[in-house]
Amino acid sequence: MNQPPFDVQDRRAFPWIADAIPLGGRFVCYGDKPRTLTCYESSDFSQVWIARVPEDAKGSIWGISAHDGVLFARTWSIISDHGTLTRFDTETGNIVWSRTIPNYDEKVPLVANGLAFVSSGNGLIAIDVRNGRRRLRVSQFLSRVQYSATRNELLGIDLHGNLAVFNATTGEFLQSLELAIPTPCVFMSHQGWLFIGDRERYLHVVDVDKWRIERSYNVTPYSHLIIDADTAWLQTLQDNFDGHRFGSLDLQTGELRWDVPLPFDAHRPVHSPHPLFLRRGLVWISDLDGPIPVYALACQTGELQAGLTMDFARKIEPSIRADDRVGRPFLLAGKVCVSVAKELWSLEIPPSQLTRRNGGTRL
User: Fold this and answer.
1) Can you say whether the dihedral through the CA atoms of 42, 290, 286, 187 is positive or negative?
2) Is 13 helix (H, G, I), strand (E, B) or coil?
3) Three-class secondary structure assignment of 119-167
4) Beta 60-67 vs 256-261: how paired, if at all?
5) Fewer CB within 10 A of the terminal residue: the chain, N end or C end?
């Protein structure tokens, strides 16, 4: 498979980063040491602090998040049905509190109204972000929980595939909308709308004020969405379920503006391809299990602008091995950074490769 290479603008020796998040003028990451967080200055990459999850925490770090100055790390254990949620002080890295939580699908908790909401097998619990104490419990199982700030409501999919709504302060059940989607693959809120995808063929849009399905798009979404204005970029399934594609959906008309096949074997696990962010007319995608771990598509056409393969990485740095790891790309001071083996690279698209109106390279 031929794909244009990225332009590596900057590279430096650096510990391998699996994932990173911005934190003011700094960033926090984890990687080589799966139970350790490290904070660095974004300007000069100097280390600010290093912290570890508690000794009795089960498993390795699976996700990190920062919300209103509150930093969380979530551990996941494959040999236990419980993990750990730990809050760290953002200035020092000291542990503020830590508590055992059930294993659940979301990598990080939903944080809203001073509470961290955690799903479990028999309900939803709300943890006070100040002290780690349980403040609220919703006895009904909910997955893919969202929070409506304007209505102070929790919204999630129940065991019957219906959309259920609860008061976020009291946990009182308010209402439900019958959808019958037992395995939703997309559920997100955007400007007063809920986007709910099923694996039967549709992406449904729910108006949370009128509390009804306003429209359903004839696409089969899979995994994640990025929404900007009247366009959604999403991973989709082909009609015969024999392969996955990535497309651009016009939210006004319901038409796919374009869709292209994703560059991997249709029969291998496909949870990895993940649209990360939009930047300079490109949608950046991470596929850490695939032959092209990082690539960028033109937002308007779906044409491949650049891809990062291990063959290309070895041309930049011959010491890199085929089995070395690539981390999830992240934005840092306006640049796209990615960890490749023991180096940190800044990637750009060479101006000569940007798609012209009638040019470009298909995946």
Assistant:
1) negative
2) strand
3) EECCEEEEEECCCCCEEEEECCCCEEEEEECCCCEEEEECCCCCEEEEE
4) unpaired
5) N
Identify the CA nearest to 288 among candidates 304, 300, 276.
276
Q: How far apart are CA 27 and CA 46, in angstroms?
A: 11
Name the residue with tokens 């993990």. Answer: 83
CATH 2.40.10.480 location in the chain: 219-351
* Model confidence pLDDT, tens digit, residues 205-225: 888 778 888 888 877 776 678
Distance separating alpha carbons of residues 356 and 358, to the nearest angstrom: 6
Please, what sign has the CA dihedral across residues 317, 323, 325, 326? positive
Q: Is 90 helix (H, G, I), strand (E, B) or coil?
A: coil
Write down the pTM of the prediction: 0.85
Which residue type occupies 54?
P
20-29, 160-169, 229-238: which has the minimum mean pLDDT? 229-238
On the CB side of 117, CA atoms within 13 Å amount to: 25
Inter-residue contact 118 to 103 (CB < 8 Å): no
Question: Are the C-beta atoms of residues 37 and 28 closer than 8 Å to each other?
Answer: yes
Distance CA 262, CA 287 (A): 10
Contacts of residue 223, Cβ cutoff 8 Å, sequence gap at least 6: 185, 186, 234, 235, 270, 271, 273, 274
Domain 15-78+88-94 has CATH 2.40.10: yes
Looking at beta carbons, which pairs linking 68-75 to residues 24 or more positions away fall under 8 Å? 68/111, 70/111, 70/129, 71/23, 71/28, 72/108, 72/109, 72/111, 72/116, 73/30, 73/37, 74/101, 74/107, 74/108, 74/109, 75/35
Q: How confident is the model at residue 355 (pLDDT cuts 50, 70, 90)?
A: low
Q: Which CATH architecture has domain 219-351?
A: Beta Barrel (2.40)
Q: What is the CA radius of gyration of the chain?
A: 21
